[in-house]
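Lab notebook, bench 4. We co-purified these components, and the gel suggests they stay together. Before we commit to crystallization screens, I want a quick structural picture of the whole thing.
Request: model the full complex, all chains together.
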Amino acid sequence: MTERRIDPAGPDEPTDEGRQLDDLRHAILDGDGGWLRAKLDEMHPADASDLLEQLSTDDFETAVEMLGGALPSEILIELRDEYREDAVDMLSDAAVVGALDDLESDDAIAVLEDLDADRRERILDEMAPNDRALLEANLLYAEKTAGRLMQREFLSAPEFWTVGQTIDFARDNAEDLPTDFYEVYVVDPMNRPIGYVLLSQLLRTRRDVGLADILTDIQSAIKVDMDQEEVAYQFQKYSLASAPVTDGEGRLVGMITVDDMVHVIQDENTEDLLALSNVSSADGSDTVWDSVRARAPWLAVNLGTAFVASAIIALFEDALNALVQLAILMPVVAALAGNAGSQGLAVAVRAIAERELDGPAARRAIVREALTGLVNGVIFALGVGLIAWLWFGDPLLAAIIAIAMLASFFWAGLSGILVPLSLKRFGADPAVASSVFVLTLTDTMAFFSFLGLASLVLL
Amino acid sequence: MTERRIDPAGPDEPTDEGRQLDDLRHAILDGDGGWLRAKLDEMHPADASDLLEQLSTDDFETAVEMLGGALPSEILIELRDEYREDAVDMLSDAAVVGALDDLESDDAIAVLEDLDADRRERILDEMAPNDRALLEANLLYAEKTAGRLMQREFLSAPEFWTVGQTIDFARDNAEDLPTDFYEVYVVDPMNRPIGYVLLSQLLRTRRDVGLADILTDIQSAIKVDMDQEEVAYQFQKYSLASAPVTDGEGRLVGMITVDDMVHVIQDENTEDLLALSNVSSADGSDTVWDSVRARAPWLAVNLGTAFVASAIIALFEDALNALVQLAILMPVVAALAGNAGSQGLAVAVRAIAERELDGPAARRAIVREALTGLVNGVIFALGVGLIAWLWFGDPLLAAIIAIAMLASFFWAGLSGILVPLSLKRFGADPAVASSVFVLTLTDTMAFFSFLGLASLVLL
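Here is the predicted assembly.
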């Protein structure tokens, strides 16, 4: 284990991890619960959860069973959502209550979210009234908001305290403080935050200095109902390690830490990447059925748009009957224009996510994409025209495909930026559905311009 | 300003930001350097840099000029790469030296990276020998490694110190400590880290307790030559706010903080998303020429693959001449199979990035993708077959397109997972080039199976 930590696994050393997994499988086969418990105890919870996630679902369930329903809470919370859900399903109510007691409130909420309403109610009933009230209050906030993500444990101090008083308070109340935090929130008598003092600042300041003299203004302004994406943006913008969360009256009610925001950032990035490829969700442990459900609906939409393209081609049946070269060349126009549109779309979706397309920047981007479409259009119109000429020896056909390429590229450039910007304006996610729109627009243009021109000129 | 901070701009309130930008533009037009300086001073550096980035390049350069070459270093470092490069180009050598003195070493390195070799040399010559030596040492590490990203400022303490001694040391050396840090590294006499103590832990522990009694083992093992992607992975896995960096002899030489890792995570995500859409790089301030250069090479590759598809279609010229319906329907097969392949590819690329496809998980994913391809293949084979039958009233044609769909979907499922896994195995980035491969494979299969079957059966 130590060896693996010191030399994190590169592609060439799967042996150590592989051996661990083999050992684990053998222990499960042998029903050796003692070995399993000792092994998990000796590992870092993040490593232990990684190892457990390598098991098949059946083996994983056997392992949880062997632990007598007592999976350590710090491992439970490190598990990926679907494994955690599985594990929680198998734990006894008492074991879940025990885990909730151990965990900080944001992690406890994550576990509670996995439960169906009945069981959640039953388990909350078993908890101490105070803990229960806090958790229930958090559950009242909508999913994916700051209120759901925040933890109730943090350190705050009145502005008239000195550094010394704050440190003494922390020492006297060590048990009630969160394991890890990075700053002290300075609050007024109404419990509204008026600033913060970094622990690194507190540490280097003499005991008799007042907090009021060293506090920093709070840049972020995170309210309980703020969307997690906006919270993550504030963390990135101001390079925060943690931030205070306030309720409707501006009172300090919780704290969000950067590790949770890193997860949000990863989730949002995954969503965008999958959405652009027409997948509604994906996860390492998905079954075939999960995958079909996440993909078939978008394929069905694509089925519709593909037949729209077919219908356009069918309009030019006579041209196709007269000249088989049109059928041979038309996918080239559609493929390249579609690719150009997807390129612009990816750039736009990314820029929107990073908030680079606000205000005048959007106008600049539209102009740039239109011109990029034109420039690439000229380059590839010449390229495709030349190849078509050499292949079929027909300069007129070459000219027609070149003009169709240029028109389709310009159109692709505009579609790639205008579709996501319009979706955003209407409050929709610019990544979802946009690639279907863009490809339909470019296909339509490609087939229509190429076959239409050919009908006009060649027939 | 305060108003904007308290209510971060939602989509409905561009007025405040718009007004600020207008004010700024007027000040630049009027050459009002005093107002500009006062405005930037009053804002948080992250907000100030955001505002400056909204300016056109010309206005931005005028603004930097008006500041008399003295752009505050905390704003300079917040600017996006391309704006920072621009600004540094315009600053006098003395102003750059001043900024480097102000900045912590990781930020100073970011500025030095923007300079050409000559100017970098000249500016390093002007610096204090000590600072210079540290920066030059960092520059020796390869780009995108821990050595480049780390800062040289951190707090370490020998293991025999008590909490009280550590706090006293921090108070006595307040000036030399970084502005913000989250933990104290406990080192042995050879300066090798043997553990860390979180500041939140230090704060709540009594003065007479020894560091050795409260230290935690270091989970991450970040060496100076570790790739930034691996470093970011360690931060995510162990939920780190900061981590120590060691040299080849295991001695503590620097510290990396989570805010830098958030940037790395965003950059890696952007790279993947763009690569999947065949864009080699993109940035908000890209010119048309930048965009063409980032996209045309991939379009050229696509040009080649598109003509491969054409060549396959050309093999079946007789069939197309005999039955125009084939030309009308063939894009449906290619579009849907291509979409199915892209879906699988996106899921695989994402899973590889999140390290979910190591070991046995890869085999499970291959089976799942093949089966998903089959299931969706059956569904859409029936769908497309039915529509083709209704449209053209030819059951044989409907059967042919249905079989071609099924074969293409199965093939798409396999391509979508095997292409990125193979690229990864050969040490290449699984996101780069993979979509071109997958689409070429699915196009080839789609045209070949549909037109080939049609030739065999119908002619």
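Chain B is about 70% helix and 5% strand. Worth comparing against the SEC data before the next meeting. The radius of gyration of chain B is 30 Å.
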